[in-house]
Amino acid sequence: MKRLSRLVFFASLVASGLPLLGGETLREAAGSHLLIGCAVATRDLDDPKLAALVAEQFHCITPEYDLMPAHMVDDAGKFTFDAGDRVIAFAEAHHMPVFGHMLVWHFVTRQWLFEDKTGKPLPREKALANLKSYIESVMGHYKGKITAWDVVNEAISDKDGEYLKDTPALRAIGADYIAKAFEFAHAADPKAELYYNDYNIEQPGKLEKTVRLIRSLQSASVRIDAVGIQGHWLIDWPPADMIGKGIGAIAATGMKVMITEMDVDPLPRDSSGANMAQAEKGANPYPHGLPPEMQTKLAKRYGEIVTEIVRHPAVTMIGFWGTHDGRSWLNDYPVKNRTNHPLLFDRELKPKPAYDAVNTALKRLP
Ligand code: XIL
């Protein structure tokens, strides 16, 4: 950051009484090379210290869940925009771009969009009409206020030999529900950037399917601007060079790449990654804080991953899935009620060694 703008930046922080952490903030360390973001929800904004930290550290935000279909519309089709509006008003007040998460997903949604009450798929034309009017209502409301939308979330199958997940949208409409969602989104707000967002897509298997999906949208002349690699990574998987190769393969299709939901889980998972019972020995090993050797391990892992990511000019945003450890979804996933420590700030909002590692990796940008 240039000296003058740095001075202005610090002066504005002092004037606003924000908590200065000392040293460069994340957004300063990244400068103008790429955006640094985080997921926030309305309840985060009720905590003035946390809200100040968000404005101090990050360039942009993603509403964590306030824009999900089940929060936008009820079972009778009535829309409520209040929570989303509050998050967006905060972003506007701090001149922060907003990344909209998301328009189509098989979780946190409403059954009536694609199924009848008995779970039977709706006729294709009815499901398409619902998809179109849902997208028009939400994107219409936020037109001009949301920079980019995750149009479809987590549609690619994790199973070998299966391309797309078997979801209500797929059963009612067919595989082209993805292309249709992008078409409807482009028509609803032609200026909004449109993204496909998913987990593990930087890894072999899912990566090939992701490239296939991008190519199919491109050959149908459907607008798609970027792919969001969620980045819910583990302390020891996947290796940083695999992440780099995945980014490279997606970038080679001409897409921009966003790291949309980064966190690094230091807690143990069983081989399925999702079924470990809370009662199982060792499932919640750090209820009183991460021991120093784990802090160091987490910091090293964050540093290695971010160092790899920033080597790729196609990556124009790194967003963290939350702010402090107490507000991470990983306290309840894949096991409920654990004490997790996957983010850059601890429960007292103090920056962790992982914060320093990310900050240093960002500062190495040319
Ligand atoms: C999670 C949120 O963090 C939770 O608050 C919500 O209840 C469920 O969703 N992949 C995604 C995100 O795309 O939407 C998920 O976020 C985490 C996994």
Record the SSE blueprint:
Layout (H helix, E strand, L loop, with lengths): L2 H14 L9 H5 L4 E6 L1 H4 L2 H10 L2 E4 L5 H4 L9 H12 L5 E6 L19 H18 L6 E6 L14 H6 L3 H12 L4 E6 L7 H14 L6 E4 L2 E3 L5 H12 L4 E10 L26 H18 L5 E6 L32 H11 L3
Bound molecules: (3S,4R)-3-hydroxy-2-oxopiperidin-4-yl beta-D-xylopyranoside.
(3S,4R)-3-hydroxy-2-oxopiperidin-4-yl beta-D-xylopyranoside (XIL) binds next to loops.
Keywords:
366 residues; single chain; binds (3S,4R)-3-hydroxy-2-oxopiperidin-4-yl beta-D-xylopyranoside; nine-stranded parallel beta sheet; TIM Barrel; 13 helices; alpha/beta; disordered N terminus; 14% strand
Q: Care to describe what's here?
A:
The protein has helices spanning 3-16, 26-30, 42-45, 48-57, 69-72, 82-93, 124-141, 168-173, 177-188, 206-219, 240-251, 292-309, 353-363; strands spanning 35-40, 60-63, 99-104, 148-153, 193-198, 226-229, 232-234, 256-265, 315-320. It is an alpha/beta fold and 366 residues long. The chain has a single domain (22-362), classed as Glycosidases (TIM Barrel). The termini are close together. Bound molecules: (3S,4R)-3-hydroxy-2-oxopiperidin-4-yl beta-D-xylopyranoside. (3S,4R)-3-hydroxy-2-oxopiperidin-4-yl beta-D-xylopyranoside is lined by residues 64-65, 108, 153, 230, 261, 329. (3S,4R)-3-hydroxy-2-oxopiperidin-4-yl beta-D-xylopyranoside binds next to loops.
